[in-house]
Amino acid sequence: MLLGIAMGVLNDHRLKTLHAHVNLIGWVSLFLAGLYYRQIPAADGKLARWHFALATLGLAVLSIGLAGLAFGEMAFEPFAIVGSFLTIISMGLFSWIVMRTS
Ligand code: HEM
Ligand code: HEM
């Protein structure tokens, strides 16, 4: 959100995609998962720790990639690729946890 304010103040929206994903993957998606784990305690086990760890690592790596690419630095592409896969693996794991417990 601070990045959003900075973009507005500087009138430079190049990091819009980074801002969108930090908020939507990092905040909204993890908060929704947290609500699920709170509602369904059986889901809150070892796999949930893995989901959280992979999601956090994935977002961190993806963010580095998105930031670099936003400034046209193609050398950051591998970060976007690895971060994307970590993120989608974590989401797959969460889907599995949900299917197993509902
Ligand atoms: C203090 C709070 C926030 C500020 C000042 C802010 C500011 C901005 C700005 C300046 C942009 C770029 C707009 C553009 O270039 O068209 C943007 C885009 C965006 N923001 Fe925020 N934002 C805030 C919070 C949030 C939150 C909490 C979320 C999600 C939960 C969010 C999601 C998005 C998304 C998805 C876009 C991309 C929209 C598009 O592609 O048209 N923002 N925001
Ligand atoms: C592996 C995970 C993800 C990857 C690699 C990814 C990648 C991308 C890419 C490449 C764009 C186009 C950006 C551009 O045109 O400059 C985009 C846009 C967008 N994505 Fe994702 N995304 C992911 C997950 C998500 C999730 C989980 C959400 C929502 C919960 C989301 C919400 C959005 C929104 C709102 C936009 C339009 C805003 C913008 O253009 O910056 N994404 N995403």
SSE blueprint and pairings:
Elements: H1 2-10, H2 16-39, H3 46-70, H4 77-101
Helix pairs in contact: 2-3, 3-4
The structure holds protoporphyrin IX containing FE (2 copies).
Give your account of this protein's structure.
The chain has 102 residues and is mostly helical. The chain has one domain. It contains 4 helices and no strands. The chain has helices at residues 2-10, 16-39, 46-70, 77-101. α2 (16-39) runs antiparallel to α3 and α3 runs antiparallel to α4 (77-101). The relative contact order is 0.14. It binds protoporphyrin IX containing FE (2 copies). Residues 1, 4-5, 7-8, 13, 16, 19-20, 23-24, 27-28 line the site of one protoporphyrin IX containing FE.
Structural class: mainly alpha
Mean pLDDT: 97
Percent strand equals under 5%
Task: Extract low-pLDDT stretches.
Answer: none
Which labels suit this protein?
mainly alpha; 81% helix; 102 residues; single chain; binds protoporphyrin IX containing FE
Quick overview of this protein structure:
The chain has 102 residues and is mostly helical.
